[in-house]
Write a structure and sequence with these properties.
The protein is mainly alpha-helical. It contains 20 helices and 2 strands. A two-stranded antiparallel ribbon has the order 1-2.
Length: 401
Amino acid sequence: MNKSIGDHIRILREFRDVTQEQLAARSGVSVDTIRKLEQGVRQSARINTLRALARALDVQLERLLGQPTVTQQLTDDGGLIALRDAIQDIDALPGVPLDDDPEEPPTADAWATDVHQATAQYWAGGYSELSSTLPMLLRDGRAVAREHPTERVWRQLALAYQLAASLATQAGHPDWAFGAVEKQLAAAQRASDPLAEGMGVSTLSWVLLRQGRWEQAQAVAEKKADNLEPSFRRGTAAQLAVYGNLLVAAATPAARRDQHDEAMHLLTTAESAALRSGPIRAYGSAFSVADVRTQKVNVALAGTDGHPAKALQLAEEVDLASISRPVHSASHRVDVAQAKYQTGDCEGALTTLLEVEEDQPEWIKFQTLAAATVAEMLEAERRRNAPLRGLALRLGVDPTL
């Protein structure tokens, strides 16, 4: 039987041995809301309310929402468990004998091409296929680095671990992702590339954000941005892009902590960097004015009291056609759907979510905001809405609610 969000809250609260009143005091959420959720009178709540409850219960938000932690397709030569094993490489531990690899590793050039293709696959939302190839990509990368320990190879290995951290986080395994970031940063250091290290810290900030460690997520990104701040007149496009990505990474946890002015200041500076750099792809990511402006929409929705009307106003300044990464475009449109729902445009929100699902049918299943928005919409529906209930079923939200 599917457990509701209220069931998860009650089970975790009782496991922690706290009363509803104590949970209310810890989270800042009213006792009445907690009681109604646990009794099934309410089936969902605003995403910021759920985040507050998750933090108070000392669990990740995904535990409350029942986010899937598996990919859709089963493969014989990979998958998320294989990815975990590739990240948590036993042979790399001190004192553990190294197993001989019976296969000849690929050439450095061929492996670099594979990393490039895997990066494109991630940003296209092909998680199942990527999960089947990424474990071998990591193993091959370590073998290539042993035979050809050049700075170029180490830089590519840092990118491969960045992919592993990103995929593990999207699939609901941020603890695996933390291990991948450790290896990403170590490889970047071996590459003697400060910008690769900067992107590693940007990835780390995102992982910490997903772990609910907002203060640390903001601090590490801001400090690294300060360390790498380039001259706006003489800085290269790559330097400006990594600097800007770090500012973007710091802005989201700042907004989650209700530091909206600080978050917007960070994004305004990032937008200035993007205007100077121009659209650029570097270090496994992309940076442009459109990328920064989508984050302004996200930040407007974050915190204890989001500002959905402002988010929609900011969304009008985003040129969707200029967003180069399909999953980034999808993520922005999920934010827009949430803002539409919160301003009373339920039909517009549903239309947007269905369009995102059509474009990214696998990716959307891993998005907690999409699931939370659909759960809210189900609870508020005044008449049976077949498209909404169909979407709820496909996202794993109980459509009988």
